[in-house]
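Figure 2 data, in text form.
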Amino acid sequence: MNMIDSANYFARSLVALLLLALPPNLVAFQAASQRILPSTAAAASPQSARQSLLLLASPSTPEEMFASQGWKPIRAELDTLPVFCVANEKGQPLQYNVNDETTMPFFYCDVKAAQEELVKAKADLPADKSLGLGIIPFPLGNAFELMASNQAAVIPSADSLEAAGAPKGVNPLGQQIPLFCCMDIMQESPNTGKPVLPIFMVHKEAKEAMEQAVAVDGGEGFEIVSLSLPRAVEMLASNEDAPSFHFLPPRDSIDYIQNYLENTK
């Protein structure tokens, strides 16, 4: 199965999970190791994300964690979140120079940022290189592994960074991925029926969920807490008492994937 077929399969599985509450059967992607196209984006170091992973209490390194049995259910949950990359017609991600030291694909948490990068790539590259470029969805769990092994960069949305307290206009490349939750809101898992804590990638959507809960139960609004993706993984990997998480993809991502499926039938 090539990468485009894998992307289609992932997208179909994701939509089935979201709309029909069925468990996904996701296919692992492998990012192209060969440099496909030159960089069209400003370079910055993605090392901070990997360094934060080295703080995991148990296992002691990202490599050990990814090899452990405990990582498999965490990755399965993360794989329900799509990120997006610019890729050629063969489904191979566009490769970017990072600090003139290495090349790697960029995976965007914000599908609109990926679309903007696609426009830039088509404008900056020769016609024969830009022909067939597009955006494909990619499972976050797989992208997280690639990021931890310095084989990819996962780029958070600018709005989410600002909502998490970062200065406005900060370069998102190299920043940790912020997530948002309200510790007072629990919901039933669509798979197990057990209580889980919803985790959002978009602050506005976390706020809307909080407001809906207040409208139903009454009382005052709850605090929305920000935590980084590595911190969420750390909690799940090393703390048996941590609540189960249910990661919720941005609505814009769902809409894009639905359109993606309609255009690739």
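Caption note: Confidence is low (pLDDT under 50) at residues 1-5, 16-59.
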